[in-house]
Write a structure and sequence with these properties.
Elements: E1 2-10, H1 15-30, E2 35-43, E3 48-55, H2 58-64, H3 68-74, E4 79-88, H4 91-96
Antiparallel strand pairs: 1-3, 1-4, 2-3
Length: 105
Amino acid sequence: MHIQVINFHLKDLSEADYVQACAELAPAFAEVPGLLSKVWLANPDTNTYGGVYTWESRAAMEEFGTSRLAAAAATNPHFVGITATDFDVVEDLTRVTRGLPAVPA
């Protein structure tokens, strides 16, 4: 498994409008191949938003990076200061602490 953390700041977009737009996009993210879970992040105090993505593999993450959905997010003029960091998961230890999502059968 692989984890990706994406953060950005909102520009010329209220948090309410951001949440409304994300509500429309959430079903599309739910259908992304290889995406096991996405946790949506918000810190209005620092104007920092983003997500924590759990991928089946680094390859699934990289494949998503070439998609239209990823391109739309990366080029959204309301998202500034975008950062993306990815990590391999130490699965044995993570299972002990219940850190992995349930994988659909």
